[in-house]
Please model this.
Amino acid sequence: MVEFRQMTRSFGRWALDALLPPRCMLCGEMVDEPGRLCATCWPSLDFIAEPLCPCCGTPFAMPMPGGLLCAACLARPPHYRRARAALIYGRGGRDLVLRFKRADRTDLAAGLAGLMRQAGGPLLAETDLILPVPLHPGRLWRRRYNQSALLAQALGRLAAKPVLLDALVRLRPTPSLGGLNRQERKRALAGAIRVAPRRRSALAGKAVLLVDDVFTTGATSNACIRALQAAGVAAVDVLTLTRVVRPDIV
Ligand SMILES: [Zn+2]
Ligand SMILES: [Zn+2]
Model:
């Protein structure tokens, strides 16, 4: 009976998809395929492309000799191995994030993950496990879904890699980190994120890919990475849909 219900539900979903024409992820205009943007919205996306810092993925204004890191990574080596993002957080990139996160547009996950795969191909290829940045259960209850978990699942399907949704746990909600300096951000997040004890053995010695919608200061991913390193992971890469590119906070 359960199976039958699942079958009818997936058939219903398929029938609905077949009936409804694919729409632009931003404005709803009709497009050729699902997960695409129309010709008007496409130019509003600022794709992050080479040349970029091989560590943090910040775009360079001009080509640099191979392997040269940006000044910020040289001054303070990040906790992650590599970070990459598909889009700069601004204009269309910001609109996409807000639509996905705040407007119940969970159907965008596959299209957005497609953009992330283009930006993070080598990271995906070299990872053992994909993990989303966790949301506090209280916030999850209010928002009904964790946007990072949806992106992680969609990326796992695209790259045929395992996804562990419950490896990282947020023990308390974190206040907005905007306006805080580096030390204050670190204090606000101290002890907020842990590895679920039952998942420690699955993580030991693994290369993991941490997935989120926005990379801002790196404070949240650092909190996750500290917890993962304590659990014995071998390496952590970070892949986000968008990244704030502001030299003053790097
Ligand atoms: Zn559009
Ligand atoms: Zn860098």
